Amino acid sequence: MSALSLPALRRHVVAAQGYATRRRRGTAADVEAAVRRLSCVQLDSISAVARSHRLTLLSRVGAYPPGTVSQLLAGGRLFEYWAHEACLLPVESWPLMRRLMAPVHPWWGPIIERDPKLAGEVMGAIRERGALGSRDFEGVHSGVGMWNNLKPAKRMLEALWSAGELVIGGRPGFQRLYDLPERVLPDAVVGAPVPAEDEVLRTLVVLAVRARGGLTEAGVVEHWRLRGGTARIRPHVEAAIAAGAVRRFQVDDGGPPVLLAAAGEPDAASPAGAVLLSPFDNLLWDRPFAERVLGFRHLIEVYKPAPERRFGYYVLPLLVRDRLVGRADLRADRRAGTLALKAWHPEGRFRSTEPLERALARLADQLGLELVSAV
Q1: Using CA atoms, how far apart are residues 32 and 61, in angstroms rounded to an integer?
Q2: What is the pTM of this model?
Q3: Is a pLDDT exceeding 50 seen at residue 144?
């Protein structure tokens, strides 16, 4: 087993994310390439600053037109499915995900089987009328809570999407449009054979390690939220190592070994610049690994009552070179056209505000907002 220092691992992991730390303008091709490089990008509905996938992509490709992701979905160049959570994925991953798709919804169980009449009506309407959203179906909301308070047709749409019977054919205003896979995805992708489970798991190991720069086996499981834990993927990790796609390293901090892609030299990485990260950024998904490698205890407090929050509602960590140096509590007011810094919490002995000011100014420009307060 090869040896690696913790600082070299940290630099390598950060550099693998491909952050753009200077002002630039991105294209649809850049957005597609960034999703491919990251293997998947988490979606989240909170828009206190901007939706998480937009922040994640802005930090890699720079400013890009707001409707780009919806166009890439409609054009069959990206698709949505469960990965770390509900995520954007490159279209070539569709056959891999087909192996993981099941008719039982992860939250609501076998609702397609329980109500085949409604499933048939929903599928029939989409076949006849084209891509439809939840608002195109009749029904009343029922239950309590965000996910229980959905009308039956919306639940069925979600279940049919989760089963792979429907895909997301666009997101106007972030609202899902559901369509048939064969009308959205390329024929070669829809018709591709579904790989065996062994091949799928081995491929997911390699994709996660390449995307993240370095991960433990537990981190690979967390990246894709795979059932069965590390015991399920361990044989496939060994197979990837034997095939020369992945290498295992012992880190000098004495923690669990890490997996790195076979290509590249981890000691050569030298990340630079400053960038604000979405609280759901890929770099932060594996919180124990982030604390071990980056020395940063990541907190997401949007779901906590206000009095229990330590740093704020929607807090973006600030990355400077290869260190997370503080947390910025930000809020966008799109009607006023402003981006406000509500609080700044530096980590440890870090006191310079110049990197924060640069990152804030760049983010405000990317969002088309005026920065109205700064440290």
Answers
A1: 10
A2: 0.95
A3: no
